[in-house]
């Protein structure tokens, strides 16, 4: 499969376009990584809240356990500390949920930041490049067939601009019908060049 045109100017434009597309994709990926990392930092708040809640819960659990050993009034004294411990557990759970939510959002933001630009680049860049590769390969295949020049000349007559055809011969269609080999060869070369291939080498 031919990826680049034979003509230097056209090939240079194709290479430049490919480099720009690749660069845009790399930049989009890097931007996605940066966005993911930046948003993920917000998860630290939830992590700190969860850690604080866990520490409070453990501390008040220990206090409640110690006070429960006081004869007669241990259970009564313990109740407020158990309530604070339950509140601390809720705080810990809230912090963990915040952290998980932020992490999920960070992943989604990173994917969106990367995905949309990459999709746009692929939609604008890839189809023309694939069309060129298919046309160049198909034209090269036809050119190698017996009577390939005749087939390419016929395609040139139907596809090339009228002004371009007029430069081949004053009455190019009549010359082609008469089988003028010079005109047929010139038309075939027009089609080759249009598809990004070099002119044919003829004796």
Short recap of the structure:
The chain is mostly helical and 203 residues long. The chain is built from 7 helices and no strands.
Class per helix and strand makeup: mainly alpha
Number of helices: 7
Please indicate the percent range of residues in DSSP E strands (runs of 2 or more). under 5%
Uncertain regions spanning at least 5 consecutive residues: none
| Domains (count) | 2
Mean pLDDT figure: 83
Q: Can you summarize the main beta sheet?
A: none
- Terminal Cα span: 27 Å
Order of helices and strands: HHHHHHH
The dominant shape is: rod-shaped
- What integer value in Å does the Rg equal? 37 Å
State the helical fraction.
over 70%
Give the number of DSSP strands: 0
Q: Which helices and strands appear, and what pairs or packs with what?
A:
Blueprint: H1 8-40, H2 43-67, H3 74-143, H4 148-159, H5 162-166, H6 172-177, H7 181-194
Describe the model:
This protein folds into 2 domains: 8-130; 145-203, no CATH class. It has 7 helices and no strands. The longest helix is centred in the middle third of the chain and has 70 residues, at 74-143. Helix 1 (8-40) runs antiparallel to helix 3 (74-143), helix 2 (43-67) packs antiparallel against helix 3 (74-143) and helix 4 (148-159) crosses helix 7. 17% of the residues are buried. It starts with 7 loop residues before the first helix and ends in a 9-residue tail after the last helix. The protein has helices spanning 8-40, 43-67, 74-143, 148-159, 162-166, 172-177, 181-194. The chain is mostly helical.
Task: Describe this protein with a few key phrases.
203 residues, mainly alpha, 0% strand
């Amino acid at each position: 499969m031919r990826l680049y045109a034979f003509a230097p100017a056209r090939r240079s434009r194709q290479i430049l376009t490919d480099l720009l597309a690749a660069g845009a994709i790399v930049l989009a990926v890097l931007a996605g990584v940066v966005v993911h990392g930046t948003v993920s930092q917000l998860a630290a708040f939830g992590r700190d809240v969860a850690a604080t809640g866990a520490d409070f819960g453990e501390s008040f659990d220990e206090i409640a356990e110690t006070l429960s050993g006081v004869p007669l009034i241990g259970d009564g004294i313990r109740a407020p500390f158990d309530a604070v411990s339950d509140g601390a557990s809720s705080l810990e759970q809230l912090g963990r949920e915040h952290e998980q939510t932020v992490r999920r959002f960070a992943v989604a933001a990173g994917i969106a930041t990367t995905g949309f630009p990459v999709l746009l680049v692929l939609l604008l860049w890839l189809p023309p490049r694939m069309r060129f590769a298919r046309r160049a390969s198909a034209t090269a295949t036809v050119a190698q067939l017996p009577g390939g020049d005749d087939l390419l000349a016929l395609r040139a007559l139907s596809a090339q601009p009228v002004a371009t055809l007029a430069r081949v011969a004053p009455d190019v269609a009549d010359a082609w019908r008469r089988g003028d080999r010079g005109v047929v060869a010139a038309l075939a070369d027009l089609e080759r060049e249009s598809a990004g291939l070099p002119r044919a080498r003829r004796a």
